[in-house]
Amino acid sequence: MNHPNRLRTAIHSDGTTPLIGIFDMFSASVAARHYDGMFVSGFGFAASHYGLPDIGFIAWPDIVAFVQRLRLAFPQQHLLVDIDDGYVDPETACHVVQQLENGGASGVILEDQQRPRRCGHVDGKQVLALDQYLEKLDMVLKARRDLVVVARTDATEEEEILRRAKALAATDADVILVDGVRSIDWIHKVRRVIGDKPLLFNQIAGGKSPRLSLTELQELGIDVAIYSTPCLFAAQTAIDGALSELRAADGRLPEHTPASVGVAECLSLLERNISRHHGRVPAGA
Predict the structure, then answer these.
(1) pLDDT digits (tens, 9 = 90+) for 14-58
(2) pLDDT at 285
(3) Strand intervals (E) in the chain
(4) How many CA atoms lie within 13 A of 92 on its CB side?
(5) For 222-238, what is the mean pLDDT?
(6) Using CB atoms within 10 A of its CB, is residue 16 exposed (0-12), middle (13-18) or buried (19+)?
(7) Which among 235, 174, 170 is positioned nearest to 22, based on CA atoms?
(8) Which residue, 81, 234, 265, 277, has most beta carbons within 10 Å?
(9) Alpha-carbon distances, residue 265 vs 120, 122, 239 (angstroms)
(10) What is the Cα–Cα distance from 155 to 45, expressed in whole angstroms?
(11) Is the pTM value of this prediction over 0.85?
């Protein structure tokens, strides 16, 4: 079974499929120890690759190259990729989708925002006219072979959210995402208008959506959950803390203990990315 159809099968299975947001090869290496699926977060990639906020700086060749490296190291992981608005132009969106599918992606998320774009959980978002987005989405759907396509709306007005969710559910998109949904009540409303179409929920620390467990999401009829930034925010917290401690200790490294990471532990993690590709996966990989 190919990568898109493996993800499609997981989406249609019982329960809610979790996909963990990663921002570079190292965060992906750690995430692969805990979960079977990854989400290539635009927020995380913009922060890691450019050191910039996720407001439209990502160039599509960079995201394609990143996904190719991910697939080489992680041959069995689900890889769902955030492609923002398809990099503005519909023809570019189609080209990127084909490049990503050839590179081993499992699926993509295509949003209806217009530039300048924003993170889905901040204020100031603006959306394309619905017919413009539907035209772009239709072109992308025709350009893919098997790739899972998530149709995402960033509408913020209540009536418009439901209008767009219903329209997206009527397309051949595999999954629907209403980003920045603010309450459980609104999850119920969206679920009612999209019928049996699979629904994705995006959680981000400090974002607009409620914090819900996978069990709670399953009960709400959520088929896929993406966790956009746990690795990125944990890295910021841990690095800042470690360097503050180093500075306070006058540059003396902390004692290495069985609970901490040193040279051997880091190399063990990274060596899995070689052995996994060659079919010799160590225990705990």
Answers:
(1) 999 999 999 999 999 999 999 999 999 999 999 999 999 998 899
(2) 55
(3) 17-22, 37-40, 78-82, 107-111, 148-153, 175-178, 199-203, 224-227
(4) 11
(5) 96
(6) buried
(7) 235
(8) 81
(9) 36, 38, 17
(10) 23
(11) yes
